[in-house]
Amino acid sequence: MQRIPTGIPGFDELIEGGLPEGRSFLVSGSTGTGKTILTMQFVFEGIRKYKEPGIYVTLDERPNLLREDMLRFGWDLRKAENENQLQIIDGSVARIGMPSDEEFSISAGFDLDRLLVEVMRNARRIGAKRIVLDSIPALGFNYENENEVRKAILKISYMLERTGVTALLVTEVPEGSGQYSKYGVEEYVVDGIIVLHYASVGAQGNRTIHVRKMRATKHSEALHPLSITAKGIMVSKQERAYEEV
User: Fold this and answer.
1) Domains of the chain and CATH, by start
2) Which terminus of the chain has a lower count of CB atoms within 10 Å, N or C?
3) Closest Cα to residue 89, out of 122, 51, 127?
4) Phi and psi at residue 192, in whole multiples of 5°?
5) Residue 75: per-residue pLDDT
């Protein structure tokens, strides 16, 4: 089995060296757990370290803010875009019926099929190997039952698999809810689940990462400390964190 190194320090050793290639994985967590940083790091380090072009579909945050925020980690998204190594697809303002200033965007009133067509078209154009969809709840599925939501997410995974990319699908859940997804069905469709947690201990907050599921992979089942550093996210081994206390 081919594996895709994420480029996130400390994480790949938890999953036998990387994510199984060509599959889709859920990144789940509450607000402030580091989901956007982790997924953008996956795409950007894929470009910088492994020469693998990537696509970032943003349905929540505006691309200009993403570019500005990621410069804090030394990630020049604009440069990667100009070199056709990165494509940001803007669907953030389309959700409220407004036009986008971005060259690559989704028009107002878009549906899932139109989104997937745009993603696949750009993936072929730049030869993308990595894709992030941020986020599933922002798609605003208007379905009557869980079975229809399951079919929609299965379609996303299937179409991305046909494109040959390795994909991270972002979802947001309430902290402490015990849930892994917005709709309660995503976790049964994807090939793996990466859960980010944020817990307050006294006056200090602590972030952790947990590989809840990873098909065809012997993975760590422990909670591991996660730090947001000046260079992005870093994952520590559990025992190493205890040694430093």
Assistant:
1) 3-244 (3.40.50.300)
2) C
3) 122
4) -165, 160
5) 98
CB 122, CB 85: distance < 8 Å: no
| Contact between residue 25 and residue 194 where contact means Cβ atoms under 8 Å apart | yes
Q: Tokens standing for 180?
A: 């892994």
Written as one string, the DSSP assignment of the chain is --EE----TTTGGGTTTSEETT-EEEEEE-TTSSHHHHHHHHHHHHHHHH---EEEEESSS-HHHHHHHHGGGT--HHHHHHTTSEEEEE-TTGGGT----SSSB--TT--HHHHHHHHHHHHHHHT-SEEEEE-SGGG----SSHHHHHHHHHHHHHHHHHHT-EEEEEEE--TTS--SSSSS-HHHHSSEEEEEEEEEETTEEEEEEEEEEETT-----S-EEEEEETTEEEE--HHHHHHH-
* Interval 147-170: pLDDT, tens: 888 888 899 999 999 999 999 999
Mean pLDDT by 10 residues, the chain (245 residues): 96 98 96 96 98 95 96 98 96 72 71 88 96 90 77 91 95 85 88 92 82 97 96 85 42
Q: What is the token pair recorded at 112?
A: 């899932």
- Which pLDDT belongs to residue 121? 93
End-to-end CA distance of the chain: 38
Tell me the two tokens of residue 81. Answer: 């875009």
- For tokens 């040694």, name the residue: 243
Structure tokens at 114: 């139109």
CA 37 to chain centre: 9
Residue 42 · residue 72 · CB < 8 Å = no
